[in-house]
Amino acid sequence: MTSIQDFPTRPGEIPDFVPLGALVERHAEHVSAVVDHRHSIGAPLPATAVAEHALAHLACSHALAKWALYGRWGAARDALHAGAAVADVAHTMALDVAEVATGLTRRADGQRRFEYSTNAERAEVLLLPAGRGGAR
């Protein structure tokens, strides 16, 4: 199992495929330590320990954001494929329709480049935004 070091200080120190539960748990540990110190809950921590927890909190927050955004283009494709309007997908992603089309194109190009999809599958994805209009 991939693990997280105790006090990561850079996003790159957290493996890309660490289990989400482990990441959330480690994040909560660091947030709790900083909040407890700030509100004088429990034994006081030395300033260096608070700084270490705060830096680890930042690194874990970055990794959580990356994890959360990782699958968004696949989910957008799935929503369109299932019949959602591109305007609804755009609204849900806080993007405009053109940005959804661009994002899907980039993802489809990347999937094809690394041979995760066929040319036919790529072409199908590229047609999804055009075939799923509808104003919000």
Your description of this structure?
The chain is mainly α and 136 residues long. The chain has two domains: 11-70, no CATH class; 72-131, no CATH class. Helix content is 67%, strand content 0%. It is built from six helices and no strands. Helix 1 (20-38) packs antiparallel against helix 2, helix 3 packs across helix 5 (97-113) and helix 5 runs antiparallel to helix 6. The longest helix is centred in the middle third of the chain and has 24 residues, at 47-70. The chain is elongated, with a radius of gyration of 20 Å.
| Shape by Cα distribution | elongated
Q: Name the helix and strand elements from N-terminus to C-terminus, one letter apiece.
A: HHHHHH
Uncertain segments are none
Q: What is the total tally of β strands?
A: 0
Query: Would you tell me the overall average pLDDT?
Result: 88
Most strands sheet: none
Helix content: 55-70%
Name the features.
mainly alpha, 2 domains, 67% helix, single chain, 136 residues
In short:
With 136 residues, this protein is mainly alpha-helical.
What is the strand and helix layout of this fold?
Blueprint lengths: L19 H19 L8 H24 L1 H10 L4 H8 L3 H17 L5 H13 L5
Helix pairs in contact: 1-2, 3-5, 5-6
